[in-house]
Amino acid sequence: MNKKKTILILPGDGIGPEVCKPAKNILESVSHIYDLGLSFEEALVGGSAYEETGIPLPEETLEAARKADSILLGAVGGHQWDELEYQYRPERALLGLRSELDLFANFRPAILSKYLTSSSSLKPEKVENLDLLIIRELTGGIYFGEPRGRKEDKPVAFNTMIYSQEEIERIGRVAFEAAQKRNKNLCSVDKANVLEVSVLWREVISDLSKEYPDVKLSHMLVDNAAMQLVREPKQFDVIVTGNLFGDILSDIAAMMTGSIGMLPSASVNSENKGMFEPVHGSAPDIAGKGLANPLATILSAAMMLRYSFGFEEAASNIEVAIDKVLAKGYRTHDLEGSQDTQLSTDEMGKKVLDNLKN
Question: Could you tell me the pTM of the whole model?
């Protein structure tokens, strides 16, 4: 029997609890099938935590996150908390978890199932067999840079973008090593024609490339990268970039996969302990209606099994089970499909679970 591994589930806000439920069911099932020894705990985060405790990331949640072997997050945020002071906003919980656990490497794959080609925003020939990986630096850059704030005497606000050589090197190594396992092509995205931070970024990545002669390195300005993702996305294999640029580019890539509801992510530290979450937000407009797509969260659970625990067979079989469901024409609200095969959040989760068991 495998040693017990604790997964902390943070359902969060909006559709978060709805998409976490089927993902947990599937993790429980694969744990039983493969004797993985997974156990589960749950804690408050985001707006729901603020309502209960007055802060978005309670110390109890942070302590549970430190002790857990891995974390599955639903989503945080909602319109009812938009006017809160900055430190009380639900999104602060995400930044706090990333910083406290040093989850510096964010993996965002954009893989288009052959059964969803027609659901993509781009022409089929542009996205058929799309498989790219965006690696986003997650604990530095403008989201964490100091100084930040507002001037009391005038309507001026400011944030600081800052990266050190060490921060760039460690995300660069993750990206080069990921490229080595794929098609050995790495594109580093920056804004070196304008930003001093990006000049350093390009210098460090270029110097690092000497240690990875088998990987072809290219550089691209972020505005061009955004255009090229839409014009010819299959030219990319692995993209590495900073926090802000990665946030934007990964959402562009999401729409090529048919829906942002199909895009998982993994945020890991140097020991591969991580937080796994769908890229989509809390979608308060559809919360509680059973319309949310749980597949991104289920795929995030598969990434957890692969990246944090090394359970490749279980992870692959979850992905195969999802493909089987899509092959039969079943869809959720956000995906193209007939009314006859449109499923609720729970129904889609159950279909995946049934295929997994079979």
Answer: 0.90
